[in-house]
Amino acid sequence: MKKFLKISFLPLLLLISMTLFLRCDNDSNMPELSGESKQFVLFAKSNPAINGTVTFSKKNDGSTLVTVQLSGTRTGENHPAHIHTSSAAQGGAILVDLNAIDGKTGKSETVIKTLNDGSAITYEQLLALDAYFNVHLSATDLATLIAQGDIGINELTSTSKTYTLSSVTYPAISGTAKLTKRVNGKTLVSISLTGTTQGVSSIAHIHLNTVAQTGGVVVDLTPVNGTTGKSETSVNNLNTGVAISYDELLNFNGYINVHESASAISTLIAQGDIGKNELTTISKTYALNAVTNNAISGTAKFTKRVSGETLISIALTGTTAGVISPAHIHLNSVAQGGGIAIDLTAVNGTTGKSETSVSKLNNGTAITYDMLLDFNGYINVHQSATNLSTIIAQGNIGSNTGNNTALNYNVTNSGASSYIFNGNGLTNSNNPNLTLQRGKTYTFTVNTPGHPFLIKSVQSTGTANPYSDGVTNNGSSNGVITFTIPSNAPNTLYYICEFHSSMTGVITVTN
What keyword terms does UniProt attach to this protein (predicted)? Predict the structure, then answer.
């Protein structure tokens, strides 16, 4: 019996040995990785904790190993994944089904030789694909994305430019528009707003010209989702079909408008200049003094654009609601008088404001921001188009300013204990007492979140007893407060935080 078992077992051992030999031989013939690979980022979507990468690795036979690695997934879950055509912002059909990601490891591997339609695709072709990558929550909830990223020619580079979108109708709504360059030179435009309303879809466009000039729509953007405050648009062309690259958008003559909704298109909630119209941090503010009515005065702020042109912003206090007041830059000084050199946008009496984009004189001669700072001129604001002879505010600009230029204080805070002043002779000064002169203009550039800066006639917290004559934007915690001191201002005023009595100082007013 033992002899029979030995004889019977011998062929079995030989069979196993041959099988192992053949398997090892087959393994040695399996296509190996070539060493070439490309990794793309997968960004979090519905769950901020889940993100990762997808790596394409070339095999020697031209096929591609696609490895997904996510962090933040959970054991027991499986997440379907696909490669889609077009960009994530545009959306598109599934090109390739991939193996689902195991929630325990956060990993999946798939070897790709063909697309779902059976057409062959190589590693090199995948890297040049117009595509993006989606990872879904589950097979029964494909609508919920947990990670996503552009791949191939749509990959986002680290080159980007962010523009400010300022509030318009509602002070609580503002944000940014970020332009990010793709590998193919095209652009992802990402809008992010705070203060939007859940469930409201807000229409957005890129317009021609500047905010001050206004212009037609040149690019339709994806509406802003009021629940998230976000929108993403892949921009390749203008609405006319003309191609436009990232680099061209950075030099574009345009601005962005975000409208409240499709049914309230006339209501703007945020806007900002982009491209060559972007406003720099370089500016100069001139005083516009009262003329026929002591209650009306203010400033004209000149801000330099990236293009070297100028935004002129007039802000007056004491104007009359419903009255439109023409404004101009004239030749020479106020004392000399002179003809009109530049027509400015009329001042809206309801807001006391006007904005004009200036690139040339009325005669067509080009003029830059730097040239305006040396210009022999002055500004007049007239009462109305039917009463041009009555001037309500005026001031020298450019080479005629002398002491007419507004003096600025930068105001920050140290917690709730004090305001900190810099500028105009002060350096990190805590709650300094100020001496200001009648007839001069002072600006307070305030950045004190949660601590509204008030100029008042009584040294007390709250909003009662504000001093309003000649003051624009009183009570701001993030902006510029302008104070053109009238001739009848009291000898003593105060600045104080609306909420904290320790943040205060005395303003002595002199002639």
Answer: Signal
